[in-house]
């Protein structure tokens, strides 16, 4: 049985997560989706979709499932998987909606904490919903908002119709400086193309690790990195902000020394692992025809070799998203890893 793909839906209070979730559940995607609501209070999925409640699981008219948890996420994940394997529950993918005050870190780490969960689930992507009207104040006042954005593979901006285009562009630039690897999209009244939410491969160890998403009409910001573009370019902000979460792109148009880059990464984890939210990269290693791909969350990281470079010019790219990272020192350390 293939691992169950998981989407983590995060965002601050009132950003529009539940409205988006109702849109997902009503969508004509032909999939049975299980939803975990990590909330306090009553289940707030659209009551028109609910038909039956058994134990902690609510079945919906379109075959989707919803359950509310207030305790151990690990235990609930194991229970859902066991009941699915036993034929008691039928679903194709899992969506977890977090409380607006939740730090995505412990939820994300849950999926890498045990072999059983690694075999049962595959974390596909983290979606952050951002309230365009209130985001500037929330970003300044609440560290958890900055962490939610820093963790995201996609950022959906709601309530864009309540601000002017200049304010929206300024917010987009600010979000890109926090997370330059996440595409940004307009969320219109809680609705968005469902193709933007699923099959993101956000935690896969393959060539898609730094790939730019396809262009889309709802797009506000598109990250791009490739053979013809040596650096991510976040839009220049209209003003500077003292956001403690920021993204750093390290690039070298060639190969690195394996021993040096290994020492650099080990030191990065040891000294700054607690401050790192996400780190990912694709590296060219001297004497190795294949590209080395890695993904990580805090001090948890996975490495694997991908396909050979072939006719493509080898290059090395690392994207770090973290809190108050020492940019100058990290750039200098990375430069010392160049094969010579």
Automatic annotation (TrEMBL):
<keyword id="KW-0143">Chaperone</keyword>
<dbReference type="Pfam" id="PF07683">
    <property type="entry name" value="CobW_C"/>
</dbReference>
<dbReference type="GO" id="GO:0000166">
    <property type="term" value="F:nucleotide binding"/>
</dbReference>
<dbReference type="GO" id="GO:0016787">
    <property type="term" value="F:hydrolase activity"/>
</dbReference>
<dbReference type="InterPro" id="IPR027417">
    <property type="entry name" value="P-loop_NTPase"/>
</dbReference>
<keyword id="KW-0547">Nucleotide-binding</keyword>
<protein>
    <submittedName>
        <fullName>G3E family GTPase</fullName>
    </submittedName>
</protein>
<dbReference type="Pfam" id="PF02492">
    <property type="entry name" value="cobW"/>
</dbReference>
<dbReference type="InterPro" id="IPR051316">
    <property type="entry name" value="Zinc-reg_GTPase_activator"/>
</dbReference>
<dbReference type="GO" id="GO:0005737">
    <property type="term" value="C:cytoplasm"/>
</dbReference>
<dbReference type="InterPro" id="IPR003495">
    <property type="entry name" value="CobW/HypB/UreG_nucleotide-bd"/>
</dbReference>
<keyword id="KW-0378">Hydrolase</keyword>
<feature type="domain" description="CobW C-terminal">
    <location>
        <begin position="245"/>
        <end position="338"/>
    </location>
</feature>
<comment type="similarity">
    <text>Belongs to the SIMIBI class G3E GTPase family. ZNG1 subfamily.</text>
</comment>
<dbReference type="InterPro" id="IPR011629">
    <property type="entry name" value="CobW-like_C"/>
</dbReference>
<dbReference type="InterPro" id="IPR036627">
    <property type="entry name" value="CobW-likC_sf"/>
</dbReference>
<comment type="function">
    <text>Zinc chaperone that directly transfers zinc cofactor to target proteins, thereby activating them. Zinc is transferred from the CXCC motif in the GTPase domain to the zinc binding site in target proteins in a process requiring GTP hydrolysis.</text>
</comment>
